[in-house]
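Example 9 (inverse folding). The structure is encoded as follows.
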């Protein structure tokens, strides 16, 4: 028995990608994968300074709520800082769902920054 070959695109962004743009791009990619128009994707990127707020995040936990933009995500947890020098990985695969955040296995794609921290500057 042979293993199926999966076509995967690797993308690396050199400049910070605004969070809303990254989310929109991943949602579009999930739709294209489902329609058979695009291969799976692993994207390594950075963001301008921001926080993502998980489902357990409470605004009272932020010391300075106006310091950076805050984006709600469907992932669990509280707040996570993202910014220049901190590369994150997002993935969209054949089992992708537009609801929820990326998992380590790449099963879903909506909130790219919450996938994994792939390195810090």
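The amino acid assigned to each position is listed next.
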């Amino acid at each position: 028995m042979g293993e199926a070959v999966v076509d995967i695109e690797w993308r690396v962004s050199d400049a910070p990608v605004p969070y809303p743009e990254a989310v929109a791009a991943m949602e579009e990619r999930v739709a294209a994968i489902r329609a058979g128009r695009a291969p799976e994707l692993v994207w390594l990127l950075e963001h301008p300074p921001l926080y993502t707020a998980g489902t357990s995040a409470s605004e009272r936990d932020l010391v300075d709520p106006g310091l950076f933009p805050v984006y709600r995500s469907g992932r669990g947890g509280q707040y996570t800082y993202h910014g220049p020098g901190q590369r994150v990985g997002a993935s969209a695969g054949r089992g992708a769902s537009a609801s929820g955040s990326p998992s380590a296995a790449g099963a879903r794609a909506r909130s790219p920054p919450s996938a994994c921290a792939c390195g810090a500057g």
